[in-house]
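Before relying on records like the one below, remember that each one covers exactly one chain. Contacts with other chains, cofactors or solvent are not represented anywhere in the record.
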Amino acid sequence: MPNRTVAGSLGAFTVWHPMKKLFLSTLAALFTLTLFTGCETHLGGGSTTRIEQPTIGQQLIDLQRAKEAGAITDGEYQAQKAKLLESK
């Protein structure tokens, strides 16, 4: 049954075949669903940011540099060094 145009008091309009109407409404629903779920899902991976903690060795080097630069005192250096070595 093809679409047909009907003239009415408000002008001409098209009467849709029931299967075409079902197809178009299903297509619209799928499009809307895809649009909204696309914001939440990450298909195919994507990039992830991973923050790595510096190693104890790197922290000891940074502490030594801070002491040498005069940013911390020798006492502060010794205290922080002891904390780092206890935490491992």
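The two ends are 79 Å apart (CA to CA).
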